[in-house]
Amino acid sequence: MSDVPPVDRSSVTTLHGTPVDELRRQQAAQPTGMHADYIVLTDEERAKGFVRPVRRAYVHQKCGSLTTMGTKLAETYARDPKFYGATFCCSCNSHFPVGADGEFLWDGTNEKVGT
After folding, report:
1. Residue 72: beta bridge partners?
2. 35 vs 12, which has greater pLDDT?
3. ∠ CA 33-9-115, rounded to 5°
4. pTM here?
């Protein structure tokens, strides 16, 4: 994984085709609930390789719930673990912080999502 080129964070798209700027405005206005669309790294950017394993499930430490995600979201985390500042909990129906001080662990590990 050390031979992976640096990530280009400008190489983004969305899961369902919403223009990125429009999606950012929509997400800022939606305080709770799963968003209708999400920003991900492009197929080409994700194809450059991953710095972490591709994991599709995480546990919210506050409620203990398991949430799963699709491949493009999981690969975006694997390519750039710090790409997102928050992630969704399917039980709490809201987004919460990720990273060293975040609220989520990758399923089956003690590794914080976003680190």
Report:
1. none
2. 12
3. 65
4. 0.90
